[in-house]
Task: structure prediction
Amino acid sequence: MKNKLCFVIVHRYNKNYKSYIKYYVDNIQRFYKNSFILIVDNNSPDLYIVEKQFENYKNIKIITNNSLSKRELGGYNEGIRYIKQHNLLLEYEYFIFSQDSFILKNKFDVEKELISKNILACSFIKINGNFAESLEMQDSESVEILKKINCYDKLDKFNICWCNSFILHKSKVMDYYEIVKDKIMTTKAQTCVYERYLSGILYYLNNYNYVSLCGETSSPLQSIMLQELGYDCHNVDIINDKIDCYFGKTIQQRP
Result:
């Protein structure tokens, strides 16, 4: 089917923090019954607890990211290698890449929101930022990537991809991978840098047009988010609170 979705969720389970992965998976399977879910775990010591939750679920696979690169970038790359190896690009139209705490809350119409608009790459939510003055953009690897895709001179044309969660059309998955396959991510600071150059990659892959599925905010500060998105990721009850966005983010501050 033309509107089939594959979700690639980067996961890290910590018994000291509330896990939302079952709620996320249940929402996906409720809204998109023909979807496939790939959970890429970043070496959780108690992964067996999560595996037990899904032992009777269908259309879901949990793999472990044993590569040198971790967090979102490493997890997504490991997921793409699985996708390629199992020919999933032939079965699914769009691939949803997200953190395990950036959760599907409401069903969106794939035809209306993505296919009819010819969206090839987009973020969940964008944060409007001044890239020209961003210290993170001085990272040499980021500059190299943005210059390689002819985006370094277009910093005013795209925005921060909040929390490194985004959507790719099947035709762009391997293009994305070729750009970032050699990058290594191990620290939390690197995830902030990734938010910046990832936005440039999405802009490039979507034919130099930056799009966000769930809108935008000018800042992740609590008061501004509440005003612009209708909820505050620092205090939201992601399961029980009403959120109008398709995806909702909750902050866990895990290591």
Summary: Residues 5-249 form a domain with the Spore Coat Polysaccharide Biosynthesis Protein SpsA; Chain A fold (CATH 3.90.550). The mean pLDDT is 89. The chain has eight helices and eleven strands. The helical segments are 21-31, 47-53, 71-85, 110-115, 140-148, 173-180, 188-205, 222-228.
